[in-house]
Each structure stands twice: as structure tokens, then as C-alpha cells.
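Sample 3 of the quickstart, ligand magnesium ion:
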Amino acid sequence: MITTGVVLARAGSAYRVHTDGGEVVATLRGKLKHRDDDRVVAGDVVELEVHAAGRATICGVRPRRSVLARRAAAERSPRAQPIAANVDQVVVVASARSPEPSPRLLDRFLVIAAANRIPAVLVLNKIDLDRSVLDSLRGRYGPAGYQVLGTSVKQPEGLAALRDLLRGRESVLTGQSGVGKSSLLNALDPGLNLRIGEISQKWDAGKHTTRAALVVPVATGGYVVDTPGLREVGTWGIDPERLGAYFAEFRPFLDQCRFDNCRHLAEPGCGVRQAAERGVFDPDRLVSYQRIYEEVNVPSWSSGRRRGR
Ligand SMILES: Nc1nc2c(ncn2[C@@H]2O[C@H](COP(=O)(O)OP(=O)(O)OP(=O)(O)O)[C@@H](O)[C@H]2O)c(=O)[nH]1
Ligand SMILES: [Mg+2]
Ligand SMILES: [Zn+2]
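Result:
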């Protein structure tokens, strides 16, 4: 029987694949094996020949809609290492209190998503603790066009909207420890954390290589990607000249700078800085830009060391 499925995890030469008829364990057909090692990763949609007893052969891979790669400038580097395929969105989770949102960290996650050409949405959890943070976050991210969804697990709110956001898509959830990512997923699908744990243990534990992504079906629809974290993906490889465009609210001003190669740091006649001074967007976003700029604008021999900061 021929069918299609979504790759959930890989262990050596075996792949766990989710199909309409249940999960199967699949291996690559001979001629696919000769292609490079990253030919099939979690999130890939594959064509399968299903045999008896839940075994299958992967005979084809559908073109990817997107790739989350360990090197952000994936399109320019043949050695970019794909972590997950077909990620539709990055959901950046913060909390109103304990911990308070870290604008630097949020901006960094958003830049990594943008550099990988993956749309991002913000979720502000724990709004039961301080609802006013929702307005300030919307003020900061509205001009860049990001949606900010308020949620609470403790005084249930926004959970239906989160379910709708995840449904029918493959999402990477990311955010500081303690903001409530696991609590949110559990509120939608109580079995989810357990399943993440199971897959991790069975398919990844004990390996010394960097952990690959795992894709987990959500009972209410869609898939969440459990990655080693976007921090791991890092800003390494981001082209400093393109960084400005990853701050969407800067874009209308990028061609108003006096110098074509303006870095929006201290150059005279910088359209982006002027817009920030006029309060067109939160000037603190420019501070984040400048921090990340310094970080990505390093000679290639040293960028490896700076990765993941
Ligand atoms: N007041 C309040 N507390 C919450 C809410 N959601 C989660 N918490 C609490 O926040 C703490 C951390 O939640 P987790 O779900 O473990 O956070 P996490 O983002 O998964 O953290 P890591 O797995 O470490 O990355 C727990 O004590 C939760 O009970 C909420 O909406 N309101
Ligand atoms: Mg967690
Ligand atoms: Zn400028």
C-alpha cells in the first residue's frame, strides 16, 4: 500500500512516521540513501510503501515548504544543517510575570524565525498575574505586525485561540524556561508532554550528537516541534546586511538612510534611527537590532564561538 506520512523522529537509519492509519517505522529506499544525510528530517512529508507489522519504506520526499536550519543563512550555504522541515510558524511564548518578558530574548527569537523565513506569533501567558503587560507587548510588537495572544492556564483564557493557532499547522514553541510552554500544551492535550517524553527517551536518549528535532501530533490538530531550542539554531550565519529587514517595522525606513550601506548604528542621516526617535516604533527594538548586529558582524573564524549567546 502506498500512502503519505509526516516524519516524527529519526534514530539512526529508522524513522518514525505518522500516517492516517497510525504510526509506522520506516527506512529509506536504497536510492534515497545515497543522497546526503539530511535528505529526510523530522517534519518531512514522505511517500511510503507500507508493509506488514507497522514497517514501511520511504520511497519519496515531498518538497519542503520551509526548513529550520542550524545555519540561518541556509539559502547561501550548502552546509546548513536542517533541524526540522515544514515548520509553518514559530510561537514565541513569554509570561507576564515570573519570569517577566525579556525583550532582548524575544527579539532574538523573532529574528531567528525571520532569518529562516518562518512567520512568528507571540503568546503572553500568565496574564492572570498582570494583564497590563499584554498592552505593552502589543505596543512593542504591533508596528512590526506580530500578533500577541494573551493566555492563562491558571484562570483559563485564550486557550481556544491557542488551539486554533496550532490547528492544521506545524509549530515550533519556544521561550524562556518557566513561561508555561508545557502547561499550555498540557491544557490543550494532556497526553502531549508524556508523548514528547516518550519519543525523546526511546529515540534520542543516550546519543552524544546534538539532539535533532521531534515532531509530535497534537490531539486537537496540528503538530508541535520539540527542538533543542531556537537558541541552538542561533543567529550564527545571519547576514548583517539583511538584519534590518528582519525587524519588519524598520523596512519602510531602510531606503531613507543617507548611505546605501547604512548599518543604523551611528551613521549620520539614518532613516531608521530618526523613525525610532520620532517614536514610530519602540526605540528599544533598535537597541536589540544593534546588539544582534554586533554579534553577527564578526569574522567567520570567530563566529562559531559566539553562537548561541
Ligand atoms: N499564574 C500562572 N502560572 C502559570 C501559568 N502557566 C503556567 N504557570 C506556572 O508556571 C510554572 C512553569 O510552567 P511550565 O509549563 O513548566 O513552563 P515551561 O515554559 O514549560 O518551562 P521549561 O520546560 O523549563 O522551558 C509552573 O509552576 C506553572 O504552574 C499561568 O497561566 N498562570
Ligand atoms: Mg516545559
Ligand atoms: Zn540607517
